[in-house]
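Q: Please design a sequence for this.
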């Protein structure tokens, strides 16, 4: 249930590069709080009350300058093995990205690589909000001490999946840990700290990020937009840069020097954007090619930090001000949620047009159909329980929406469904857990003992993986890489031949299409998708809007032809008179259930 850096061998990396990937985000590589006992390396297990999962959350980092020993063949040489992975990836012309988790660390944070840079080492801990690295709780009716919701002190029983597993262990897998389960953490008996998700309480709930404590960037989050700031802004540029900023910059510099090519920045919207301005500029001074992409969720009013710049304050640091601060891209979560709603609630394809983030933000949005925080798209519990096929249409829509990058979660390309049952802290939620030692059985079939030839995959899985490859490679088409976006569903709502089913009075429930046009290279792609799980859409006519027809600028009397980029070896085609595209439209081939087409367009006399 635990792969190694070495398992990303030459065969694996070459296969991923050939499929169409440019970079690999190696998720959660830092040494985290865990039950694993590496005492021989001076790395003892953590207090079980601090843990989510037997492996522990990779976002509860215990040493920002170290990697997790679990991922090394020889744990004593774990950093060397990670550096060897970087070298292998470079040989295959792949970049390696890692996480940068600026908002919080494990409560037990203590670096063995650079202990002199530990957070909180010089904190006075006498005020809630000061120049300290952490936010310190004020004494009140609820504490001290810090009481974690991992143990019921009245019933004398553990209360989380993790503490129950350790408590009920009969095989002595966790020697000495059961005795420590009491809901308390000795270093915070008197000086408690705020949780990573801003829980300002001595008794954080089981649902919050209780395993982490929040770092102080110089912003009093308890006051919202009016919160005091002890960091430089456009209104107070003379304020010194906080020491915490310098510590985080040193961490980034450390990994850049080792050879990391980029960073996925965790919950970027809950960090002052002024820090990102400062830190990203410094990082790119060291290496201009370093890639930064931000996890951010628009509308997260509970956690987001308003921008101190009055011109950007209304954007709340997410996502526009994060791009303005220097990020290459930001998470594009809205269209993903809109597609999920079609299968899990009562959404329509027509709803997607308002969720595509047109323009500057959309063109810098990272699109995905899965990630480590989300359920598997092939899960029987989610996405309508339709299995791996739904991933085809969802991904092809999301990936073609804009000029931004795309991301595929490991196993998605072979239909990994997370059907291996309850997984410790994660329980059985249709996600591949990252809290416990578990399994990705479908991906293992592709890996095939390190040969990475996919020989154990089913025919359907092989076809799915090949389809993802054709999709990724199609994204280099000029229209999809840099073209403008023109929605077509608005022009077809009254068009009864636009995939309308019996009983519907408006079109655009399951049929979705849009045009991508690159005026510089004069290249265009029509994206047409049938999102329906069982119904073939026949006799579909797709009208162009006046705006999209003008973008094509087809000469009078010509014929527009389209050839699908996603099918092999016999791509679907269509042709239509250029003069009637806005009135009669294009007659498309039959669209089977869960079918997607990227029609490469050209004009012929």
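A: Design:
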């Amino acid at each position: 249930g635990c792969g190694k850096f070495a398992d990303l061998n030459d065969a694996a990396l070459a296969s991923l590069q050939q499929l169409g990937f440019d970079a690999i985000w190696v998720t959660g590589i830092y040494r985290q709080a865990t039950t694993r006992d590496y005492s021989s390396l001076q790395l003892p297990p953590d207090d079980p009350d601090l843990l989510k999962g037997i492996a522990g959350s990779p976002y509860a980092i215990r040493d920002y300058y170290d990697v997790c020993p679990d991922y090394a063949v020889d744990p004593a040489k774990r950093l060397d093995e990670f550096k060897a992975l970087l070298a292998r990836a470079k040989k295959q012309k792949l970049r390696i990205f890692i996480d940068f988790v600026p908002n919080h660390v494990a409560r037990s944070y203590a670096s063995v690589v650079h202990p002199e840079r530990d957070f909180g080492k010089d904190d006075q801990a006498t005020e809630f909000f000061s120049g300290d690295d952490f936010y310190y709780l004020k004494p009140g009716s609820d504490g001290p001490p810090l009481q974690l919701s991992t143990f019921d002190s009245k019933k004398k029983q553990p209360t989380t999946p993790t503490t129950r597993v350790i408590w009920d262990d009969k095989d002595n897998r966790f020697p000495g840990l059961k005795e420590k389960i009491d809901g308390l953490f000795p270093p915070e008996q008197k000086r408690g700290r705020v949780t990573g998700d801003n829980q300002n309480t001595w008794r954080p709930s089981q649902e919050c990020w209780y395993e982490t404590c929040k770092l102080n960037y110089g912003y009093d989050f308890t006051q919202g937009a009016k919160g005091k700031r002890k960091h430089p802004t456009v209104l107070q540029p003379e304020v010194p840069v906080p020491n915490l900023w310098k510590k985080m910059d040193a961490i980034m510099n450390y990994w850049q020097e080792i050879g990391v090519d980029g960073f996925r920045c965790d919950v970027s919207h809950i960090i002052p954007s002024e820090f990102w301005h400062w830190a990203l500029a410094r990082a790119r001074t060291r290496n201009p090619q370093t890639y930064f992409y931000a996890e951010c969720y628009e509308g997260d009013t509970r956690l987001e930090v308003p921008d101190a710049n009055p011109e950007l304050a209304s954007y709340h640091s997410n996502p526009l001000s994060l791009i303005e601060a220097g990020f290459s891209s930001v998470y594009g979560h809205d269209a993903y949620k809109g597609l999920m709603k079609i299968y899990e609630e009562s959404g329509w394809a027509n709803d997607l047009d308002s969720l595509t983030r047109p323009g500057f933000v959309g063109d810098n949005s990272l699109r995905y159909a899965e990630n480590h925080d989300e359920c598997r798209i092939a899960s029987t519990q989610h996405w309508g329980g339709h299995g791996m096929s739904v991933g085809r249409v969802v991904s092809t829509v999301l990936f073609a929406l804009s000029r931004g990058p795309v991301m595929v979660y490991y196993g998605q390309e072979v239909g990994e469904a997370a059907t291996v049952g309850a997984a410790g802290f994660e329980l059985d939620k249709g996600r591949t857990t990252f809290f416990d030692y578990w399994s990705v059985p479908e991906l293992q079939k592709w890996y095939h003992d390190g040969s990475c030839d996919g020989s154990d995959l089913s025919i359907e899985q092989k076809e799915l993986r090949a389809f993802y490859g054709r999709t990724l490679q199609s994204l280099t088409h000029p229209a999809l890489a840099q073209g403008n976006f023109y929605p077509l569903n608005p022009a077809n709502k009254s068009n009864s031949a636009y995939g309308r089913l019996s009983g519907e009075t408006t079109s655009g429930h399951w049929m979705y299409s849009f045009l991508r046009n690159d005026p510089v290279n004069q290249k265009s792609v029509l994206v047409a998708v049938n999102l329906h799980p069982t119904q073939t859409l026949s006799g579909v006519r797709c009208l162009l809007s006046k705006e999209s027809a003008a973008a094509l600028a087809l000469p009078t009397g010509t014929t527009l032809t389209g050839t699908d980029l996603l099918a092999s070896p016999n791509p679907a085609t269509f042709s239509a008179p250029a003069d009637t595209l806005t009135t009669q439209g294009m007659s498309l081939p039959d669209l089977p259930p869960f079918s997607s087409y990227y029609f490469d367009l050209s004009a012929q006399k």
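Q: Thanks. Anything notable?
A: The radius of gyration is 26 Å. The chain is about 20% helix and 15% strand.
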